[in-house]
Structures are given as structure tokens and as C-alpha cells.
Write a structure and sequence with these properties.
Blueprint lengths: L1 H8 L5 H55 L10 H4 L9 E4 L7 E14 L11 E3 L24 E5 L4 E9 L3 E4 L5 E2 L33 E19 L5 E12 L14 E6 L2 E10 L17 E2 L9 H9 L3 E13 L11 E2 L8 E2 L5 E10 L11
Length: 390
């Protein structure tokens, strides 16, 4: 009887106690879940801001270095020794400016020792062998810090005239010839990228005569390039965790077009790399020498030679190209808008306006939760001293 009495006195949790306990646990778990989600959002937001900072550093370092060095050796093409007083078509910087869309740019810089010229006129349509006067670079000299490398297979070179230019990859060399790979790296007038499905804007090089269809005269300059880059933007929609699409603008560097006009298409063989997906806009202004006087650095800007900057009186790309070809370029001004994803909260941010920069007006940021940062900087392109090797 005693054992039965003890068993009878034992009691379990009542329904109310169970519900209260479960409610407490749910409240605790909900708090933990909210904290995990919150710190996850904070982490993703900070990672996005970190990527933004890294891409800003890229603009200020690698990209800026290419811009500063652009045309450093190609200024030799301006000398009458090569083109008999004619201005070259290309001097290392070529604008691909767009209104209300990111600007692009073509940049090239060369080896100051690997410079030669055509021995006879060269027509790319008639073959891929260029007859040159001398392919050698200066021999080793103890007074110089290093020995200059000779031309070799897989080098990138450029031949320039007053009507156009052609960038090529070297297949083989002899003492007096350069054999090019059949597919050119690039030539003036080639670029014609597919219009963006979102903005309907593509990039094109409006050369009147394409660089593979002209005859390069005797004494046309040939320079081995240290680098050749075409910087462009491409709009892409990426799926997000919430199944909505995130519209990004990929900042892409193309180093070899393989002779294909749409270097950004999916089927292109072009050699390209995505530099950034957080640079939303890039506006480039070009300032020519006429804006500056040595005796008076505060001289007002001459808008006729201040190209593609807001309020400029001159929007004609051919005027700018004339200044570039005549080596009148003094300075390039860059304004970039970098965006970051902001995670957490509910709904979208209230629409924010991106301020007007360069020749682009103010416009709405893309749909979603974004913040933006503006990076501005100015650069002066270099001109190297030329050591002729002929």
C-alpha cells in the first residue's frame, strides 16, 4: 500500500506548464535567430563595403598607374622622324565616352627600347609579315640598370599611321621582319559591343577607316607594348538570395580582342577579366594644354578644351582626338560612383539620387538597398625620354 501511495503522489508537467516552458524556449530561440540574422546582415554589409574600398584602391593604384603611363612611348609616333610631320592617329589614350552611362577608355604604353619602323609600306590585308628596318634593341651597357629584352614571340606590338593603328601579337621575328599572329589584338574602328539589355547602350570606336584596311607607310612607327587595355562596362543581372535580381555593372578589362568587334559577348574569344561589380558609374574628363599657363596656375578653364565635363561648351569627340593626337593633353579627371549592398531591415531604401558627374546627369540609383560613395581623382599622363635604337 505504501508503494502505491508514493506512485500516486508523483505528478508530471501540466499542460499549462508545458506551454509556458515552450513559449519561453521559443522566445529565447527567436532572440537567438534575430541576433544570428542581424550579425549575418552586418557581416555581409561590411564585406560589401570592404569590396567597395578594395575597388576604390584598384582605381587609385593599378588603373591610375596605367592611365599615367599611357602613351609614354607612343609619343615617339608624333615625331617627324617617323611620320614625316604628320600627327599619329593614336597616342596611347583613346576615349570611349558615353552620356549618362559609364565611360570607357583604351590605354596603351610601350617599351622605350623596343622601337622600330617599317622598311616598306605595310598592308595588313595582303599578309601578316611586316618588313622592318631593325628589330634589335640596344645591347647591354654597364651604365644601365638592366639588359633590355629583344623582341620575341608572344610580344604585343603596335604599328601606327596618321589614319589608324593596329595592335598585334608577335608570332615570330627575324633581324628585319615581324610575323604577326593572324588574329589582331585590336585595330582602330574594330570595337562595336552589343547594346546592354537594360540601358540599350554599347561601345563603339567611330574610326572612319578601320586599322586593318589601310596601308601603313614606309617609316610607320612600331612599338612593343608594355600593356594594352580596353576598359568597358557591361550590365548583368545576378540572382539574389531573395530570388530577386541584383543589377550590377561589371567593370571589365579587355587585353586581347582576337579581332572580334564585340569583345564583351558571351561567345567572344577575347581575353578579359572582371575588375569590379561595385563601380556603378565612371565619368572621364580630358583637359588640354590650352587650359594651363605656367605663369598663372589659376587660369580659368577654357571650356573649348575641357572635354566631357559638366557644363562644357565642347562635346565633339573629334576635337578631343585632335588634341590627343597633337599631344596637347594635360590632365584627366575621374569621377566614379561605387555602390554597396545594405542588408537588414524590411523593404527597399527610399529612392536616392546619384549626383551629376562628368557629362552625366543626376538619376535614380538601382532598385534595392544600396548606398554609394564618390571617388574623384586627377592624373597627368607621363612622357618618357626616348632612346632611339636605329
Amino acid at each position: 500500500m505504501k508503494i502505491k501511495h508514493i506512485l500516486k503522489d508523483r505528478k508530471g508537467f501540466s499542460l499549462i506548464e508545458t506551454l509556458i516552458t515552450m513559449s519561453v524556449f521559443l522566445i529565447v530561440l527567436s532572440g537567438v535567430y534575430v541576433m544570428v540574422v542581424h550579425y549575418g546582415d552586418v557581416s555581409r554589409t561590411e564585406n560589401s563595403r570592404l569590396r567597395q574600398q578594395q575597388e576604390a584602391r584598384f582605381l587609385m593604384s593599378n588603373f591610375a598607374s596605367e592611365v599615367k603611363n599611357a602613351g609614354a612611348i607612343l609619343t615617339v609616333t608624333f615625331t617627324g622622324w617617323f611620320l614625316e610631320g604628320k600627327a599619329p592617329y593614336f597616342n596611347g589614350i583613346y576615349p570611349l565616352n558615353k552620356t549618362n552611362y559609364p565611360d570607357g577608355i583604351i590605354l596603351a604604353s610601350g617599351d622605350p627600347e623596343a622601337v622600330t619602323r617599317t622598311a616598306v609600306p605595310f598592308n595588313p590585308g595582303e599578309g601578316n609579315i611586316i618588313q622592318v628596318e631593325d628589330i634589335d634593341v640596344p645591347a647591354y651597357d654597364v651604365t644601365r640598370p638592366y639588359e633590355y629584352r629583344q623582341w620575341a614571340a608572344n610580344d604585343i606590338g603596335i604599328v601606327v599611321s596618321d589614319e589608324g593603328f593596329l595592335v598585334f601579337k608577335v608570332e615570330d621575328v627575324t633581324a628585319t621582319t615581324i610575323q604577326m599572329r593572324e588574329e589582331p589584338v585590336y585595330y582602330s574602328g574594330l570595337l562595336n559591343t552589343t547594346a546592354s539589355p537594360f540601358k540599350g547602350i554599347g561601345y563603339s570606336d567611330p574610326a572612319e577607316i578601320k586599322g586593318n584596311a589601310i596601308e601603313y607607310p614606309k617609316h610607320a612607327p612600331i612599338v612593343r607594348l608594355s600593356y594594352f587595355s580596353i576598359y568597358l562596362f557591361k550590365e548583368v543581372a545576378h540572382p539574389r538570395d531573395d530570388l530577386s535580381d541584383r543589377l550590377v555593372r561589371q567593370f571589365i578589362r579587355v587585353s586581347d580582342c582576337f579581332g572580334q568587334e564585340d569583345a564583351l559577348s558571351e561567345g567572344s574569344d577575347s581575353i578579359k577579366s572582371v575588375i569590379s561589380e561595385n563601380i556603378w558609374d565612371l565619368q572621364i574628363a580630358y583637359i588640354a594644354y590650352e587650359n594651363f599657363k605656367d605663369s598663372d596656375p589659376d587660369t580659368d578653364i577654357d571650356n573649348a578644351h575641357h572635354y566631357f565635363a559638366g557644363g562644357s561648351t565642347s562635346q565633339v569627340v573629334y576635337d578631343l582626338l585632335d588634341d590627343l593626337r597633337a599631344r596637347n593633353l594635360k590632365q584627366l579627371d575621374f569621377d566614379a560612383i561605387l555602390i554597396t549592398d545594405e542588408y537588414g531591415g524590411s523593404g527597399e531604401f527610399e529612392k536616392r539620387k546619384v549626383p551629376a558627374i562628368g557629362d552625366g546627369g543626376s538619376y535614380d540609383m538601382p532598385s534595392g538597398k544600396y548606398n554609394y560613395k564618390i571617388v574623384s581623382f586627377s592624373l597627368e599622363p607621363k612622357n618618357y625620354s626616348i632612346i632611339f635604337s636605329l
